[in-house]
């Protein structure tokens, strides 16, 4: 115990080391605070959308006279609530929208809308606990540990200290442990406070805390391996800074370049245009062609499928859905391209431990690319329920009643969604 | 002065002999070259793809068959943001914004399909572009090559020897700075070649490319001076290295993120849905075209009837439905414009925070100057969005105008019940060929130059500060000797 107190006292007496630890704690706390504020903003945004929905529905119910009209104006909210760890790992939530309003029209024309964010704020990356853990904490660890041995040697004390009885256990191990513990405390205490405020489930909190520890452990091992080699302090510092620089900046940027080059993603704009061409082309195609294709998918609606000589929403919504199917393959390829890039990035994560740990953090928090794609799949599943609900009314020719609008299926963010329902 | 050259020459020879220095320089040059080539290839492909897509979109619009003009309002068209003239050097926000906007009646859509949402989320830090290399990596290389410049001499006691040869502190620091400056020029070279190449192919961008190059030269000069100053002040080279890496981490990594994070939560933007709901509520208040007894549209009708001295809309010399559509679009578009302007102001304020954070981080200032100069910043994107909205409004109103003048009111009224009337409301496909095409030009070089001024001034301040610190370091060195 005395050994620990001695090392803590020594660490506290070194102004630069103490300043580095205090700054790290301040940054971690700031990261948590900004993360919590982001999550609060997202939650408030979702609340506002849901609170505004009744007025919208009331207004639509005021002028709608049939189910088709109701489906046309019936925007329904879908949303991706921030998880209880999103505050620590904001991930892609700034570039992938968390809320959307969809209606029974062709989904491919609605699904890719973007949020109205300021791109200059996304440019540098997020300021959250992942950032502090992956980029900043290693630098503090390097500052504290690169000269554990070389510093004493340069001060002429190394032989004397090493010859003390039990030096390895009582001196070096304790000294190193105290410094690592200082870094961990600077990260974990703000995280724990944030997790309590966010109401994070304990197992998830422990898992995330474990990832923070893993990141620090990885860097500690790297640093100590370099520091043991017996080079001078300055060479150690330069070597470690280069390793940090390569692992967190250069190699990921190069890997990203390589991944994007080797996994093509189909042109989204072309997909959107293709969808529009098919949907609007339906106005100039024989209506039977549309209805036949639609009824092949929905034979249960054949009985009520007869069209009047003039416009009918049955036909209108039939070609809207066929427009989605028309680009289903492209849409799947688009999704597969993004998922493929994410898969390569995960593989790269095994070779680049800091990147791998960052990915594990965003995956745990549900803020990564995969979560973004899953949200889209949930929207697809919900959209299917929504339009099929209206088909039942459109094709049964049941008399219209405003309760039809009130009873539409609602999106449930917890619903896993039957992925690939489309 | 001759002594300065001698010291610089000696420092450079030392670097040439040092394996570490050589590896560092070669790595940076290699990265810089890779960045320049891949970025040039990628942006050229992107530019080509977007220009091609715009052409195809325009052709598709013009190739539509005979239709009711309102069908064309819904068919709409797309605006693609052209790639900025210097985007290969600095793509800026290009991948963080959508690049395609669907333009249709009644609705204002967002820009969709941006590269960032299609990328792997591998430590989103920066794309490997010439600008990123200069902003982020080059200062670090300079630190590695320069931190020991003076501190090493002090540790070895050779500072005294230099002083004995009559070298003043000024000439020692000046010589070291000169040598590091040569390295900085070398680091700049590939990016400057990339910039020069872009300027050669687009001569009207030459002036602004030069200003961008000068901004980066100034940024790296500030680093060179600061590094030599810290090396001159620090007691050991280890201390100099740690202090410089800490400064780099703060200036290049931490402050830009923190400033963006704070700006985002301190001055939040309304979400798209917020805006949609607010516009819907406003519309219900101002004029609800779904409501037959809406006061605004009733007044609009009365005014038209009075103006033309008739009692029924059927007797108007044009199709009333077209006029009604124009009035409806006018109201919604005015709201789109108002709300977009409000959001633009918030975005500008947020970016203003980043501008002020340039006081803490010259990296932010040089990034801003570079993006503004390359026309890949928020302002250019906003200008694109506003141009797309203006074009959308114009196109939709032209089509609504066609509904008023080229579609008979009687047929239009009967078309939902009478298939033959419906046939007659389909007007000639030739009309679509007369519609103007979307065109967007990035802000002019002089406008961009003006917009760069605040960031350039901040950079100038940083250079002055770095000179000041170097001067202080020289006096200190003179006073305390080695």
Concise overview:
The complex is a heterodimer of chains A (422) and B (482). Chain A has 422 residues and is mostly helical.
Write up what this structure looks like.
The complex is a heterodimer of chains A (422) and B (482). By secondary structure, chain A is mainly alpha-helical. Chain A has 17 helices and two strands. Chain A has a two-stranded antiparallel sheet. The model of chain A has no long low-confidence stretch (mean pLDDT 93). Chain B is mainly alpha-helical. Chain B has one domain. Chain B has a three-stranded antiparallel β-sheet. The chains are: A mainly alpha (422), B mainly alpha (482). The interface between A and B is large, with 104 and 104 residues. Chain B: It comes from Blastomonas aquatica.
Which secondary structure elements does this structure contain, and how are they paired or packed?
The complex is a heterodimer of chains A (422) and B (482).
Chain A: H1 2-13, H2 15-63, H3 67-73, E1 76-79, E2 99-102, H4 119-122, H5 129-145, H6 150-154, H7 158-162, H8 167-198, H9 202-228, H10 233-262, H11 268-281, H12 287-297, H13 313-326, H14 328-351, H15 353-365, H16 369-396, H17 403-406
Antiparallel strand pairs in A: 1-2
Chain B: H1 2-17, H2 19-62, H3 69-75, E1 77-80, E2 100-103, E3 108-112, H4 130-146, H5 148-156, H6 158-164, H7 169-201, H8 206-233, H9 237-266, H10 272-286, H11 295-308, H12 320-357, H13 362-374, H14 378-406, H15 409-414, H16 419-424, H17 430-433, H18 445-480
Antiparallel strand pairs in B: 1-2, 2-3
Helix pairs in contact in B: 1-7, 2-4, 2-7, 3-14, 4-7, 4-8, 4-9, 5-8, 5-9, 7-8, 8-9, 8-13, 8-18, 9-12, 10-12, 12-14, 13-18
């Amino acid at each position: 115990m005395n050994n620990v107190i001695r090392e803590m006292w020594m660490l506290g007496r070194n102004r630069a080391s103490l300043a580095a630890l205090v700054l790290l704690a301040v940054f971690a706390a700031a990261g948590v605070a900004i993360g919590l504020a982001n999550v609060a903003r997202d939650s408030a945004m979702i609340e506002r959308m849901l609170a505004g929905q009744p007025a919208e529905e009331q207004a639509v119910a005021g002028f709608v006279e049939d189910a088709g009209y109701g489906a046309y104006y019936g925007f329904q909210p879908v949303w991706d609530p921030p998880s209880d760890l999103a505050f620590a790992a904001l991930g892609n939530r700034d570039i992938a929208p968390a809320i959307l309003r969809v209606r029974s029209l062709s989904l491919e024309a609605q699904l890719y809308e973007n949020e109205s964010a300021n791109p200059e704020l996304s440019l540098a990356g997020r300021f959250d606990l992942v950032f502090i853990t992956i980029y900043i904490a290693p630098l503090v660890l390097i500052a504290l540990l690169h000269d554990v041995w070389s510093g004493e040697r340069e001060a002429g004390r190394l032989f004397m200290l090493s010859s003390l009885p039990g030096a390895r256990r009582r001196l070096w191990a304790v000294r190193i442990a105290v410094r690592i513990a200082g870094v961990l405390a600077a990260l974990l205490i703000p995280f724990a406070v944030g997790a309590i405020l966010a109401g994070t489930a304990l197992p998830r909190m422990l898992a995330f805390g474990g990832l923070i520890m893993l990141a620090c452990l990885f860097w500690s091992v790297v640093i100590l391996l370099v520091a043991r080699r017996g080079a001078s302090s300055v060479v150690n510092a330069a070597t470690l800074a280069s390793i940090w620089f390569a692992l967190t900046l250069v190699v990921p940027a190069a890997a990203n370049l390589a991944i994007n080059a080797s996994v093509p993603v189909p042109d989204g704009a072309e997909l959107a245009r293709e969808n529009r061409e098919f949907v609007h082309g339906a106005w100039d195609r024989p209506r039977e062609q549309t209805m036949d294709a639609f009824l092949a998918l929905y034979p249960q609606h054949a009985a009520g499928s007869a069209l009047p000589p003039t416009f009918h929403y049955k036909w209108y919504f039939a070609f809207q859905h066929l427009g989605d199917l028309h680009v289903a393959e492209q849409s799947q390829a688009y999704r597969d391209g993004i998922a493929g890039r994410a898969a390569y990035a995960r593989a790269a994560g095994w070779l680049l431990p800091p990147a791998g740990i960052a990915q594990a953090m965003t995956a745990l928090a549900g803020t990564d690319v995969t979560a973004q794609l899953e949200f889209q799949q949930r929207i697809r599943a919900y959209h299917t329920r929504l339009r099929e609900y209206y088909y039942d009314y459109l094709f049964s020719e049941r008399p219209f009643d405003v309760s039809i609008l009130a009873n539409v299926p609602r999106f449930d963010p917890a619903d896993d969604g039957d992925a690939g329902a489309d | 002065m001759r002594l300065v050259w001698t010291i610089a020459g000696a420092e450079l020879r030392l670097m040439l002999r040092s394996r570490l220095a050589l590896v560092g320089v070669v790595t940076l040059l290699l990265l810089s070259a890779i960045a320049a080539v891949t970025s040039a290839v990628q942006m050229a492909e992107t530019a080509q793809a977007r220009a091609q897509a715009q052409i195809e979109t325009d052709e598709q619009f013009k190739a539509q068959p005979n239709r009711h003009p309102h069908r064309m309002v819904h068919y709409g068209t797309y605006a693609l943001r052209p790639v900025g003239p210097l985007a290969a050097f600095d793509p800026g926000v290009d991948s963080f914004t959508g690049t395609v906007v669907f333009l249709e009646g009644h609705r204002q859509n967002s820009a969709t399909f941006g590269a960032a949402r299609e990328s792997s989320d591998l430590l989103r830090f920066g794309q490997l572009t010439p600008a990123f290399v200069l902003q982020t990596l080059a200062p670090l290389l300079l630190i590695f090559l320069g931190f020991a410049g003076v501190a090493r001499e002090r540790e070895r006691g050779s500072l005294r020897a230099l002083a004995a040869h009559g070298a003043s502190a000024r000439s020692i620091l000046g010589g070291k700075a000169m040598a590091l400056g040569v390295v900085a020029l070398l680091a700049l070279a590939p990016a400057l070649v990339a910039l020069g190449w872009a300027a050669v192919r687009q001569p009207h961008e030459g002036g602004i490319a030069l200003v961008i190059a000068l901004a980066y030269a100034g940024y790296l000069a500030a680093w060179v001076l600061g590094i030599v100053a810290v090396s001159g002040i620090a007691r050991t080279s280890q201390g100099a290295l740690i202090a410089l890496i800490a400064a780099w981490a703060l200036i290049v990594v931490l402050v830009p993120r923190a400033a963006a994070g704070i700006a985002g939560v301190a001055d939040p933007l309304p979400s798209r849905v917020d805006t949609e709901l607010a516009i819907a509520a406003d519309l219900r208040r101002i004029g609800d075209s779904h409501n037959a007894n809406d006061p605004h549209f009733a007044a609009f009708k009365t005014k038209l009837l009075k103006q033309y001295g008739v009692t029924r809309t059927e007797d108007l010399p044009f199709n009333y439905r077209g006029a009604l559509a124009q009035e409806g679009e006018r109201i919604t578009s005015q709201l789109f414009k108002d709300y977009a302007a409000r959001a633009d102001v918030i975005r500008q304020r947020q970016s203003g925070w980043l501008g002020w954070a340039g006081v803490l981080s010259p990296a932010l200032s040089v990034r801003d100057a570079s993006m503004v100069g390359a026309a890949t910043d928020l302002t250019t994107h906003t200008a694109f969005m506003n141009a797309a909205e203006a074009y959308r409004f114009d196109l939709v109103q032209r089509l609504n105008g066609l509904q008023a003048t080229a579609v008979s009111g009687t047929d239009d009224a009967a078309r939902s019940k009478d298939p033959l009337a419906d046939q007659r409301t389909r007007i000639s496909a030739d009309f679509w060929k007369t519609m103007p095409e979307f065109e967007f030009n990035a802000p002019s070089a002089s406008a961009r130059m003006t917009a760069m001024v605040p960031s350039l001034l901040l950079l100038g301040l940083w250079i002055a500060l770095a000179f000041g610190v170097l001067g202080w370091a020289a006096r200190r060195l003179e006073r305390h000797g080695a």
